[in-house]
């Protein structure tokens, strides 16, 4: 009997296992399945861990989780695995178009994922072809045409291996290395190199007279912020449920200061309040097809291009039509559709491009956040940048599916990924309530936004001295790095990836990107005349595929393609 190792049992691993079982049920093939997962919550993994605090919110609307569809009933030989409901059915989701979107705590989705996994293992643990091994895999070794899976305790020989291991640690940046040395010299200082698990911050949660620097101004910063300030000294209170305007009330004085900063200092923009407003930015079905045709007709014949106009031009055309259609809802509607399209192409190719239709990002950070909140509420004139990135968000599933494995020049892929990453300030934006909480903390003089834009940082005995453009300074006694590393394969320092690189079993698409894979997920190796029976799905394949960070992608076509490809291999 052939053996398959699935290494990593988060959401992608779960969906891969389900699709494998479904595909096996259509054949007479028998496969021994070994699942390797070191966390105690299979199906959820670390990101969706069920013990994390309620202050860690999903940044995707519950409405947007419709892609987590139900699992069908599976009959495999004499084994029956019952169907499992979609997330929406499981959570009894119901919402009108004008109801505000909801953003539940991440652990709620974790409970769903874990229950979905357990519904499989309760059946499979009684069989002789399934085994769950609670251990970290440290290496995969190619032994002729098989794979040796090594943990610290044991070694298993398998015919194929699937990696769905998600976020991996990377080498510390020079800045973080310098900070570590500084903290080692001054043991009263505290440094956290990663924001998660957030529970590691419990020791400083209720400290008095503490100034905390937070490296990064994104979603993880918000999780860190919310965890630290919802404490015995105070909490948030919504004062207007129409706008989620909030106050931070203090039970007693803590003298806590939070100082976030990033390279550009630009804040996140919240998602639209509800489906009704979100639909303002939704392309029509024919427009989606227009964008798809434009991309595919180009990529099928111009694979060596270094230009991404084939992508930006059709998006700009659709974005211009939508902006013009919004009429009196936008900043000004005097420009022609063609002019707006031209402005958008320039903006998509140059993030520093300015125009009267584009939000002025040089105003104070507080004002900028308030402006984006008002746009998300539909209470103010919409800027062209806010509009196009909401349009981009609606197009992302299409972009990810059409550009993944398009075999474009690697530098072109890098440009596209950079543009998609740039969009995340808007497309991966948080709930309105999160941004209102930031403003509430500024009003309460806890969060200081005057150092957000790339401050000068000096290491002094008391900690980290930050200096802003106005030459104001502040000293942080504790520093939290909330910047999550991008999946640059050559900088990852987990044993399993370092060993795969050392043995030449994997290679990067680009020096700054992830593992090169084929459409069915199998790695493209440097080893000549030999097919390496290792597949990679998810974050580590960034570059070969786009859209690796969204939970909806964990339940998508790439995982289904892998399962079909694996079964096809079995038949050969």
TrEMBL record:
Pfam family membership, one: NAD_binding_9
InterPro entries found in the cross-reference section: HpyO/CreE_NAD-binding, L-asp_N-monooxygenase_NS-form
Residue ranges of every copy of the FAD-dependent urate hydroxylase HpyO/Asp monooxygenase CreE-like FAD/NAD(P)-binding domain listed in the record: 5-168
Name listed for the protein in its UniProt record: FAD/NAD(P)-binding protein
Organism name: Winogradskyella pulchriflava
Classification of source organism: Bacteria, Pseudomonadati, Bacteroidota, Flavobacteriia, Flavobacteriales
């Amino acid at each position: 009997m052939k053996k398959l190792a699935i290494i990593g049992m988060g959401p992608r691993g779960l969906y891969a296992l389900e699709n494998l079982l479904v595909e096996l049920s259509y054949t007479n093939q028998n496969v021994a399945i070994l699942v390797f997962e070191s966390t105690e919550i299979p199906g959820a993994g670390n990101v969706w861990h069920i013990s994390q605090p309620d202050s860690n919110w999903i940044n995707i609307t519950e409405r947007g989780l419709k892609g987590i569809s139900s699992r069908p009933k599976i009959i495999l030989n004499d084994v029956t695995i019952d169907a499992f409901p979609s997330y929406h059915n499981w959570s009894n989701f119901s919402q009108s178009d004008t109801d505000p979107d909801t953003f539940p705590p991440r652990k709620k989705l974790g409970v769903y994922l874990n229950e979905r996994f357990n519904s499989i293992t309760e059946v499979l643990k009684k069989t002789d072809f399934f085994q769950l091994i609670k251990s970290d895999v440290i290496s995969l070794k190619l032994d002729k045409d098989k794979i040796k899976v090594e943990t610290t305790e044991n070694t298993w020989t398998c015919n194929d291996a699937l990696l769905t291991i998600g976020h991996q640690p990377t080498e510390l940046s020079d800045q973080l290395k310098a900070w570590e040395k500084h903290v080692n010299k001054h043991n009263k200082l505290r440094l956290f190199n990663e924001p998660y698990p957030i529970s590691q911050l419990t020791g400083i949660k209720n400290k008095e007279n503490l100034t905390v620097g937070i490296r990064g101004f994104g979603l993880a910063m918000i999780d860190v912020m919310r965890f630290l300030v919802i404490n015995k000294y105070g909490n948030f209170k919504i004062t207007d449920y129409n706008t989620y305007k909030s106050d931070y009330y203090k039970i007693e004085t803590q003298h806590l200061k939070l100082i976030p900063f990033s390279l550009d200092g630009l804040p996140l923009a919240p998602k639209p309040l509800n489906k009704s407003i979100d639909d303002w930015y939704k392309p029509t079905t024919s427009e989606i097809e227009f964008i798809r045709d434009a991309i595919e007709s180009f990529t099928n014949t111009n694979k060596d291009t270094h230009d991404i106009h084939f992508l930006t031009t059709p998006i700009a055309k659709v974005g211009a039509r939508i902006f013009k259609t919004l009429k009196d809802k936008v900043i000004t509607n005097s420009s022609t559709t063609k002019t707006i399209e031209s402005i958008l192409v320039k903006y998509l190719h140059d993030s520093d491009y300015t125009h009267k239709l584009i939000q002025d990002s040089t105003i104070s950070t507080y004002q900028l956040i308030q402006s984006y909140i008002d746009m998300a509420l539909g209470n103010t004139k919409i800027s062209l940048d806010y509009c196009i990135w909401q349009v981009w968000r609606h197009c992302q599933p299409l972009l990810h599916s059409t550009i993944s494995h398009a075999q474009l020049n690697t530098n072109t892929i890098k440009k596209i990924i950079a543009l998609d990453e740039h969009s995340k300030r808007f497309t991966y934006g948080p709930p309105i309530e999160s941004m209102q909480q930031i403003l509430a903390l500024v009003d309460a003089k806890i969060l200081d936004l005057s150092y957000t834009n790339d401050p000068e940082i000096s290491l002094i005995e008391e900690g980290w001295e930050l200096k802003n453009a106005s030459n104001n300074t502040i000293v942080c006694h504790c520093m939290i790095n909330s910047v999550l590393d991008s999946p640059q394969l050559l900088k990852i320092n987990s044993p399993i990836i370092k060993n795969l690189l050392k043995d030449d079993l994997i290679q990067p698409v680009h020096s700054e990107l992830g593992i090169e894979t084929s459409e069915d997920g199998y790695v493209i190796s440097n080893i000549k005349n030999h097919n390496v029976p290792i597949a990679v799905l998810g974050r580590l394949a960034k570059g070969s595929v786009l859209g690796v960070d969204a939970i909806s992608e964990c339940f998508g076509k790439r995982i289904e393609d892998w399962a079909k490809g694996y079964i096809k291999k079995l038949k050969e």
